[in-house]
Amino acid sequence: MTRNIYVFGIGGTGARVIRSLTMLLASGVMLPETNKIIPVIIDVDAKNADTTRSLKALEAYKLIRDRGYGSREEIKDGFFHANLSTLSSVKPLNDTTEKVDDSFQLQFENLETSFIKYIDPKEELAGDINMDFLEALYDNTPSGHSNFGHTELNLRLDLGFKGNPNIGCVVFNNLASTKEFKFVLKSIGENDRIFIISSIFGGTGSSGFPQLIRLLQEDERIRANFFGAVTVMPYFNVTDDKKSAINSDRFNSKTEAALTYYSKYLKGKINCFYQLWDTPLKQYENKEGGAEQQNNAHLIEMIGATAIIDFANKPDGAFKPKEKTEYFDFGIQHEDQVIDTRHFFDDTRKNIMVPLTLFTYAMKIYLEKIPAFKGEAFYKELNLGDKILSDPFYQSLTAFFNKHYKPWLAEMTDNERKFQPFNINSDLNSLVREKQIEVKKVLGVVTNGGITDSLLKEKLGKIEDELKKKIPDNEKEKRFLKLLNEISLECFKKLEDLPSKKDW
Amino acid sequence: MFKTLYELLAGTNADPIYGTDVYPAVGLFTLLFALIFALVFYLALGRWKPVWDKLIHWVITLIVLVAVAFYFALSQSKGATGEDADAFMYKFALVNALFASIYFIIFSILMKRASIFARRTPF
Q1: Of A39, A47, A217, A360, which is least packed with CB atoms within 10 Å of its CB?
Q2: DSSP A342
Q3: Residue span of the structural domain in which B65 resides
Q4: Shortest Cα distance from A384 to chain B (angstroms)?
Q5: How far is the C-alpha of A77 from the C-alpha of A61, rounded, in Å?
Q6: Which chain A residue's Cα is nearest to B47?
Q7: Which pTM value belongs to this model?
Q8: Host domain of residue A216
Q9: Is A28 in the same domain as A119?
């Protein structure tokens, strides 16, 4: 029985994990029993660069998927096969007239103000006992003080909660009144699963996560659905900046406080709880939010995305009741500062790293090889000469590889701990780190050049010839995606297998 | 059939051996040469590897076929008549080369769909 998976990504970390999920799904990671994946990014920081970047990747994915496969749901393998949909594509169960924006983001209303004005828009509480109570609960440095703008009651909410979950939980309470959230509640079917991504050491994620669980489970109809969550504990620090409201010295204490709260109030509400952490090695620049907050992709976020895949693919019978929440960690085989394919256990290598390797071959072939094969029959048959620069499908595919997938890999390589499974700037024979495809020579003459241009031309021609028999000319985009998938499989045959622990 | 085709462009020759021996043999073999060249170009090489499938390769193949057809017609004429090459023989050889190229173009149109790498050659 197929089902939809609702994936809520809260805050900057939520958006970054969804960005990683988009890359995994683009690579063709299998979701055999899933009909639609519906990512919903919830971030009050409307201009957050991490969120913007994730949304752009999702939109590019959606366009490629729509043009490649249409709205068909029976596609179960290959690049971009997963049906990543916006909320608006789901038909509510009991109200067919209601509509929401065609967006992957859930928007809050009335946040273009300070926290105190959000609570008291008409300034009716001045002198009231409730104001005294608020001032007792929240920092309210008087105006005129140099730190006035960063104090809790005066924080602007449209820039995020800047590490203040005590503000976030108040704002998240109003989530239930948004049109989109009401639509979500009406859309979730009885077999659908719900997954929530959050960080525990910031403001938005740590406050939004328990609130979201509570709001969703207020609807009795949804309460019995399978719930999963990944919470990301500190895995980076930020530089000291006295002017900033964010201070990484408080990350651990906030984590501890949030975990204590979760253990008490989330008991019996989640089936699968994935928890991730890493020793913070990297110090990011201290940016409070907005367009300046663009953290490099990190291995932890990709592992967070694998938790969603694991949750989505679990058979119904494998879930334990919510009262017996299962907790999951992610381990690697060998402690190291630079992680590659060899460090993962077999399941991750097979289910995640093989598709990523195929997709990386496809990226290199699409960006670097195919444009040079203009004279080949497959290029002409697919009208690539006319389309590759002007057709929206190919423009989106180019953008996805150039602006999303390649930078995502490069950022993880630059981060700490480094994740470098591929040498993305090397040739195809050296693409997979620690597994060179050997070029064989006899008396100085190459007898097996590995992945060469002539091999690619031959295979591309033959694959296209076969695909043409199965996929008609009016579905050339689908044929092209299949072509990329199959040529990358041919490259993988040359590689034979990914490097593993035995290759150390 | 071949007699009619050749006489249409090269004119008639008083020597009857052209009509009885030269035209049928040259016509048939030229047709076979064109067929073999097209089979090798489109099916043998054109389905094996992308090594001889571009327009330039097709043009070279055509030129070789034209040369073969020209030489074959000339040598057959000289052999059948027992005479040295004369103006008619050259004219006949040229016409045969022209027919060879026409056969090759027709076979190309028919066979290119069955090819993998030369599917879009020459157009």
Answers
A1: A47
A2: G
A3: 2-114
A4: 13
A5: 15
A6: A462
A7: 0.88
A8: 3-110+157-331
A9: no
